[in-house]
Design goal:
mainly alpha, 0% strand, globular
Length: 75
């Protein structure tokens, strides 16, 4: 996906498909939840024009900012 909005729409379409298997449905439901939370937390940046599709690490760090892999150190 090229934008977060496209990614959210894509996940919604997959969840609306009755032929989506249960395992895929669980995955996309969780991913959609994380994307919507990310969009809510970064509303100002999105409104300013940053519509990039966040990667898995960005989604994880948005939910868990204190995890070691998410910490940023200034030298």
């Amino acid at each position: 996906m090229t934008t977060i909005e496209q990614h959210i729409q894509h996940d919604k379409e997959i969840l609306d498909d009755p032929l989506t298997n249960p395992a895929a449905r669980r995955h996309f439901k969780e991913e959609l939840h994380d994307l919507i939370d990310y969009a809510d937390h970064h509303k100002a940046e999105i409104d300013a024009g940053d519509h990039h599709d966040p990667n898995a690490l960005e989604l994880f760090c948005d939910q868990h900012p204190d995890e070691p892999e998410c910490l940023v150190y200034d030298d």
